[in-house]
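User: Teach me something about this protein's shape.
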Amino acid sequence: DRDQDHWHFVNVRYDAREDKRRLYRRITVGPEERMRTAAQRIAMLDAAATDEQDLQLFRPVPTALELQHRHDRAFDVEAVTRQFFEEYKTLFRAMQAELDAQTDDAAWAHDYAQQFLNRLMFMYFVQRKRWLGDDNDFLTTFWRAYRRSGRPEDTFYSDWLSVLFFEAFNNRFHGGHTHFPDDIKEALHMAPYLNGGLFRRNELDTRHSPRIEDRLFQQAYEFTERYNFTIAEDSPLDQEVAVDPEMIGKVYESLVNVSAEADERGDAGIFYTPRTEIDLMCRLALVDNLANHLGAEQKNLLYEVVFALEPDEKDEADRRVEQAGLWQALAERLQATTVVDPACGSGSFLVGMLHILDDLQARAQGRKGIHEDPYDRKRRIIGQSLYGVDVMEWACHVAELRLWLALIIDAEIDTTAAHVRNEPLLPHFSFNIRCGDSLVQEVGGVNLAHIKGSKQIPSSLKGKITTHKKEKLKFYANDPECAYRSLDAAKAEELRLFRELLVGQEGAIAGEIKQLQCRIQNPKAGQIRLDGSVDVQPQMELQAARWQEEIDDLELARQRIAGAIDALRNAAHVPFVWDIAFVEISEREQRDQRGFDIVVGNPPYVRQEDISDPTMPREAVNPATKKAYKARLARSVHQAYPRHFGYSAKSGSVSNAISGKSDLYIYFYYHGLSLLNTKGSFCFITSNSWLDVGYGAGLQEFLLRHSHVKLVLDNELRRSFADADVNTVIVLLSAPDDRNDAGLDRRMRFVMFTAPYEAMIHPVIFQELEEATDRETTPDYRIHALCQAEALTAGSDTAPDATGTHGPLIRVGQYGGDKWGGKYLRAPDIYWEILERAGDRLVRLGDIADVRRGVTTGANEFFFLRLVSDAGADPAIVQAGDRSEHQIERRFVEMPVITKARELARPLIDPSVLEHRLFNATEELRDEDRLARAYVEWGEAQPREFHRRATCAQRARSRPWYVIGERGTPDLVIPIGHKRRPVLGIVDGTLVGDNLVEVRYHDGIDRVITGVSVFSVFTMLQYELLGRANFGQGLLKTQTYELDELLVLDPRRLSTDCSQNLLRAFDAIAQRPPYMVYDEVTQLDRLAFEMAVLGALGVEDDRTASALLASLSDSVCRVVWQRMAKTDNSREARQTYDEWLASGEPFGDCLAEED
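Assistant: First, the predicted structure itself:
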């Protein structure tokens, strides 16, 4: 500032491209700021300081690049977040343990500790507004006044903080508190009247009588005093290195469960979505939805308006809107837009959408000459436009907290009058943020989701719904004239309206049934004979049969509604139901408007085997309850889209069921889409696994047929969930309609960004993407656009009906799923160029060989034995998995076995050098097999009991558990897991374990030639495209069904010269261990081999082949590097591929990281 009291130290993240927006990161220093974080971060900029890495490299003076990296680390907001979280977690655990020790109630202790810290940190944000005694450090003043007061020890919480929380902030402070000094009394008397939701005694406060000792508060106080708190949440391009409300959201989403031993986030599948991705998704969804209403021809302009971040960009975009005469329509649409996050967590997407809607509406009002106070505008947007649901109550509280904080930044109140307000400063969010299960909506065994038909709502009921909506807004705004005096009264009215809707629906259906019955009983039409007489029988029998079918269907619907009415009448507790909680959304007057305009979010990632009822106590969860809940999940999806899934309400049968292996987020896709109105827009960020794994096939087909896959976005530079082993994609979809296959006419677009997301939030980028009709590569992205019918054909056994006349339930060909992630996101241009040049010279491996997993023993530590004695010794001395040594007759341990990829030291495998042998009894052991029998008995003894393990016990039903059975040896071995080292094994006379895949060629297929071609760089690239890289830690997996799709040289189409060239080139590299891929592709013998492979693929010109090979090798190295770089502790995460290339140094060996 002018007096030089406040300083902003600004770091601008480097980007060589001058036309890109810059990311500003700030550290604020001033009289009112805490200095600890600033001092620590700025100290990192000291060029004279030598860090540990410099000392290790004997480099006392850092280079310019290293100084740049130091600046980046110093201004790393994520680093401060991690530090804050680790210290917060220590404090939280200490407080939780103390409260648990007092009450022996772990769940309550968890929730109460969280609530206490909620309130405390809210205090820090409030005091930044100077609403307490005009003191921006009021808590320190308050604490010191207590310490000087001479009051009894350990009474600060009970006699001081509780008065502030429950009296002062609730407009109930009175003068009877004689222990307060006069200045404290004055501050409490003048405190603002805040919403009672956060500072009102609740069930957590009354269940126990906790004693929070002064030492515990002191620990919490000292922790919070170390950090700067800022009310403003950062924008995508301007970030302050401080604690803002978003950081609070990150902390709470990292402390989901009571169990200290469990992985808190992983158990509940909750991972915090970064700010940049949230902002991008909200803007994409909003542009898409506005274009759906204002016309596709306006989409480019809408991109400019919504994606404008800088003042000059906003001015230019707003001027163009004015020239187009679009402000009135745009302003009306912005105010009418409704947004829901069905798994809202800490409310990040709702806060993100609030900021964007507020900015756009403020600009619209400015252009129209309308003034609305920023606080009032935000409060209106939240009340009318933003909705969230989460199954965890704590998450709902944090979402409310963040929305409150987003409001108070713009709340300017006269502190002298704040305490006499009749209504709280902050609104009630109870109707906007709901706690409940978004997926299963059952009462008394009756699913209440999707239960209402499309019948016309009686005008009398429309009026009641309109009135209810107005009263909810009054309640939200704390209007004293609101008809609802309490939250319970408002919810009771919701339930009454829903019951009335169901009764009306039942009556309407009963009326239709009666009309149809009258038609059957009183036919009015017949067939005219040649003589002019009428024969009613043939025609009317057919029509009567159709009417009876309608009656049967209507009767089923009526019975279902009647069951729901009974369930609601008899239920002691009615859980969250979408159509009850948001009746004003689901029952809008215009049928095409019923539903939300935008569904956005990051649903929890829970693997299918871990799915359980989230409302059930953890100790009550068992396999039976998991199975029952998954059945309810599946039923809810089938009932949402009965035509697509072939669901029969009468029998409950399903002809096309959702895969039972679906992870939880798959169900959120279906349910989230069902919440949209007909012009709605859907945007999720989820695991990318559904793009490539079997259980994703059902969702793929559903989207191809009934929706529009507008965008699938990935980023090869950064993993969105950096702290989780989950790789993600952002997906933008249209509202589905399972009544037809209209989606097949749409064009879908897959985009792999090669620059950070923050650099991609620009209108020009997405305008270009909208225009793409095929494959295209730019410095910022790769895009693959194709027709959805083409994608359906690519994943089907046979092509769909070209006439387009088949209905949604008629399956023309079986859609088995496709590798969307591999083919359309990760595949570089060179992949498609190789395919085009190769033509029919490539063949699926599954067409010329049997591909299956290695031996599944059920007890590897028993069956896989390390040979200790000489190979010819009899008996042999072997070592089991626990390192115990045993003597066994040699005939039982003669078969070599490869147990892990690391044993594939070179492409040609000599079985005699393998150290492991398979315990290979071919039949039940006899008395003379004394040593083998003794070994089996050892395996059956406690504590081992290998024979009781599931696989071994299953085997024992048909033969002795220790008899693996007949199994031919493979021709080729391929690892399931891949990191950096290109390995395979051409083998003969050996078996492999279940961590590898074995390939046996069909008769007439040259085993050596085919194996040789699998060692090529092109195959390495295919691993990256066919496999699944969603495991984190850099691991890529290729299962048998994926390797079936591997394209290899067809040996039947190779000339003798080509075959001989390949074998000669392969011989040069077959006897040496392969290097890491980055070094491997530069070896001269490897280059010669790859040139021979390209020659076999039909590339005859050496110059062309060299250029293709350079591009292919570079693409392979980059895609492997990018996969590994998403692992924080890898070498690739510490520098870019181009930086490593520029160094000129070999990558070197890292075998330890490959296991």
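Now, about its shape. The longest helix spans residues 487-521. The chain has six domains: 7-75, 89-229+243-267, 275-440+585-825, 442-574, 835-855+969-1155, 856-966. If you'd like, I can walk through any region in more detail.
User: That's plenty for now, thanks!
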